[in-house]
Specification:
With about 350 residues, the chain is of the alpha/beta class. The chain is built from 11 helices and 10 strands.
């Protein structure tokens, strides 16, 4: 059917229609590139890894070792930012609120992502509020005692606790920390009772043991190995199913008759929720490349940390491991009066 419009108006109308179609095509290409651009260009500026603890501790050291090598793969500086306080949850919340673009990451650990999230006001669910990037290193805990304590192995130690019910002083590092929950599990599994003295961090707890102020504690092997080697403290046993390569002469509590006593101190790397999957994959690849580096392997060995095998370095492996740890430890914490949120 012929249009009733004059020919000139028909030509102008057709020209406008073609221009609108061209503009729509350009917009479609542009908008389609918006979601792809962050991944294609990532990273185009420095990346920040937030650590919820002061400089110098094992978590801070882990972040700095990884950052040093991740920058080689990513082609950008990787900066470690310390935001200590509230058992690591201040840094945790800061990253949760960050833009989901891969430029702000959180390096957490058991104490924050299993323990502290039940004790402090956090604004993001530990399992669903972040994008898991990679499971990082693990380290073994052991029972460290003052050097005058009259026991030398797990069996003698448990016997001493039972002979002195409620009299021993255990140095705890904050309520809900790995050290605290380890001690709670020790009491449960060995059927013993003792008192808890809470310290603000691992360093004051170690000092209390070295001075004889406290009787024992549950601490990282790498953190206290030098004190053990110098004879300033005793080691009662490793809190794991297998012995620790850093001190293979020290027996496990499993060997000493305390079945099931095992708490591995682990680290993980997370990004804000909604970070594009291709960006997460690039960061994960940089972590994997760092772990393959001989210098990185040597540095973590010096810390007493174990690098996970290649098939355990994925985002999925971190999520699965984190979920299993929560399912294992939250009921134990709840039974001890350390109540997770919503309980």
């Amino acid at each position: 059917m012929r249009s009733s419009l004059p020919r000139g108006l028909r030509d102008n109308n057709e020209g406008m229609r073609m221009r609108l179609l061209s503009l729509a095509a350009v917009l479609a290409v542009t908008l389609g590139g918006v979601s792809a651009a962050p991944a294609d260009n990532y990273p185009s500026k420095p990346i920040t890894i937030v650590v919820g603890f002061a400089p110098g501790g094992p978590t801070d050291s882990s972040a700095r070792i990884l950052a040093e090598k991740m920058k080689d793969t990513l082609g950008q500086s990787v900066i470690v930012e310390n935001q200590s306080g509230a058992a690591g949850t201040i840094g945790y919340n800061r990253v949760g609120h960050a833009d989901p673009d891969g430029y702000t990451l959180y390096l957490g650990n058991w104490t924050v992502n299993v323990g502290a999230v039940t004790m402090f006001p956090v604004q993001f669910d530990p399992l669903t509020g972040f994008e898991p990037v990679a499971l990082l290193t693990t380290s073994k805990l052991w029972i460290v005692a003052r050097k005058e304590l009259p026991a030398n192995n797990p069996r003698e130690f448990v016997a001493w606790l039972k002979a002195n019910p409620g009299k021993a002083n255990a140095a705890s590092v904050g309520v809900g920390s790995a050290a605290h929950v380890c001690l709670v599990d020790l009491a449960n599994r060995s059927d013993t009772k003792f008192q808890y003295i809470t310290y603000r961090g691992g360093a004051p707890a170690v000092q209390a043991l070295a001075s004889g102020e406290a009787d024992f504690s549950c601490l990282e092997g790498g953190q206290t190995l030098a004190l053990y080697r110098s004879g300033k403290v005793k080691i009662m046993g490793v809190v794991a199913k297998t012995r620790w390569a850093g001190a293979p002469e020290v027996p496990t509590f499993e060997e000493g008759g305390v079945s099931g006593l095992e708490l591995l101190f682990w680290h993980g790397l997370w990004a804000p929720k909604g970070t594009p999957k291709p960006v997460v994959e690039k960061i994960n690849h940089a972590v994997a490349k760092a772990f393959d580096d001989a210098w990185v392997q040597k540095r973590f060995a010096e810390l007493g940390h174990t690098i996970p095998p290649a098939d355990q370095r994925t985002p999925e492996a971190l999520y699965k491991h984190h979920k299993a740890e929560i399912e294992k430890w939250w009921p134990i914490m709840k039974a001890a009066g350390i109540k997770p949120k919503g309980s």
